[in-house]
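Quick board copy: two proteins, each given as sequence then tokens.
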Amino acid sequence: MRKIVKNLVFIFSGIIFLEYFTLNPLNKSSLQVKSSEIKINMDDNYGIKRNIKEGENRYKTYQNEIIEKVREGRALEYTLKYPITVENYYSEEYCKKIGPHSFIGSVDYPTWCNKDRGPFSIVENSKSAWIFPLTVVLKKGYKGSLIDKLYETFDAEYLGVIRDHNYDPDVITGPNFKHNKDQLLGLVSDSKKRMMIWKISDLGSKNYLPRDIDRPKNNKFDLVIDLLNKKGEIEGGVSFGTNRKHCKYHKRNCLLNKIHLLEYRSKNHTPKVKLTQEWGYVTGDAYPIHTLLEDYGSFKKIFLSRNYYLLIDITLNERITVSSVRTRREINE
């Protein structure tokens, strides 16, 4: 019912809009200058300043209510599932189904289940190394209010759904897009390979919106991984920060080279594992790897969810002292 009402409002608004320009056409006489001097009503300046201020406030509201909640991790929910050792992973039903190889033409690509060349071939302690399935999703409350806020607060224009999401922003925006005033927001379902797109027009004054090259960081929080003993004390861990993996919260026993976050995509059984200086081993291209936001200035993408394998490659002796593993969020001020 709500959608019907919204559609009727748009239809009636369109009719009123067309009638206005039918009854009030711009004719030549209205554009003729009859004097070399034109008086300016100073009240108009106040109106301009007020419009600029309102534009700035709309942009701040947009940032605070939609973007910053994701950037700071407040709209995200992380869920750890029960672990399995790397050795046992290879005997799981998933590996029996897909096997260690995937052939595309005559080329052999190693899958997750390839002990010698797959992503888990980096593991040094296969009998004791843990694999924790880790999922990050948008919180239900955030998702439930997002669409309403786009329409009711920002009068967003829904542009439709496109396949995949890896596009040059300039291709999506088109020639009439005002990078210094307009915003595009994409809501991405990576598993469905689809992206819904909204356009929010006139969101700020010309000098207020950040340029693409000055865009904010994709996140403002650290994803902290803690290994706890039976007393609930931290035995070790590592943190995934804004620009790299670090030891800020685990200076006594930082497992920098023993904990990795490998992104898992349901339709990609043959990910390529690579070693990076900032993050260690990864299988995805999103940086930072633990966020659901990709910020390109005037074009922002929010993912509905992402799935990972949290790999903890420790020895049997190290594992004996570990009673539980937890994730927590620390905001970077």
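And the next:
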Amino acid sequence: MNLKIATAALLVGTLLLADQVFADCPGPFMRDVKRAYENAKSAESQGRKEDALFFYHGAEGEVCEGPNPYEADAAKRAAPLALELGAAAEKRGDFEKAERLYDAGGQFIAADRAFIQTVRAKPDDPGTYQGALEHFRGRGETWFAANNAAAMKAAGAYTPDPKLVAEVNAMPAKGIERATQKEASNFNEEYLKDYVQMMQSRPDDATDATAIQKMIGAQQAFTQKWKTDDMVKVSRDALNNLRMWGLTVQDQKLAATVAAKVAQLSDQRATTLRQKFAGAPKLLEDAMDYYRVPASDNQKVEVHVAAVRSQSLKLGDDANAKNRYSLAAAYYEVADADDKAEAVRQRGQQAAMQKMQPSIDQMRKQAEALQTQYGDPAKVAEMQRQAEAARKAMQKQQATSKANNKKSAADLEKELGL
């Protein structure tokens, strides 16, 4: 009796312990992989190969209850499906999908081949480099082989290709070189000089046809000469890209060199814009953006930005004193002096209205004269009578002309004996 009770207690304890173990296991459970395996076989029998592949992949791996009896066969069936579907996606140029398909079937060598194509498509993106670095680093870990043992057994052994790893490791140096060249080639002082001249040609008098024509000519000449985007923005974007490479690169010495280079170039570009090309308000805005690029010392940046705003405010006052209303408003906006910008715009509108007032008065007089003329019923009736008489005269003239044409034709026929 006591033995039965002890055995029962042990059984209950074991079941309770098992329940506790399963409760602590997040999954998957045996029922999950069984369902995935059955779904995979059903999809494959119906010709839904891609669904089958991912269902087979879902049937692989460990389960909470212990060994997974479906894993080996699922991996064996997934491997050829991955080769077929991945190759088709690769042929279409859809390398991201090809990588996912190859990976699902344990075809890791082929997956890396597709993956590196996506990396090569973005050689100047530090984020792409970071993702590639983690990709190959993870695949070289022992846990990767352990977690994918069944897939490798079905599809073949795998280790990351050293050539691909070396290609990824070389990305930062090449990306830094390209970003440096791009930044230098787009910060063009001749372009900046032409841009300032174009902005200075903008008239403040909307009634000055000659000045407006001159402005249009200057804009067309600038566009034809510089068939490109905003070169200052391209330069600054390249500088930001250089900064990101410095933050991403693994070599700390190279990272420090890049950071110093970015800080130096940012300061140089901003200073050049302030000292030589302040004639265009936008370029002062660009100078502030250059100061912000390093993003390392916010207090220093704020000092520089405040100096640019002060410079813009003074230039706005100078332009305002010369009645350059649009130019002054643009400078005030850079200086963050919105009230002054609005005030000078209103001054410009008032000046334009005063200059246009004589023309407005003349148009008003003409409108009043027309209203007076067409407001008199007798005059309107007389104009209608004259119009009707003119219409009748025209009809009579057309009828006479038609009759004469017929007569002339008849005479000609008679003369010719027809």
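Board note added afterward: Residues 22-168 form one domain.
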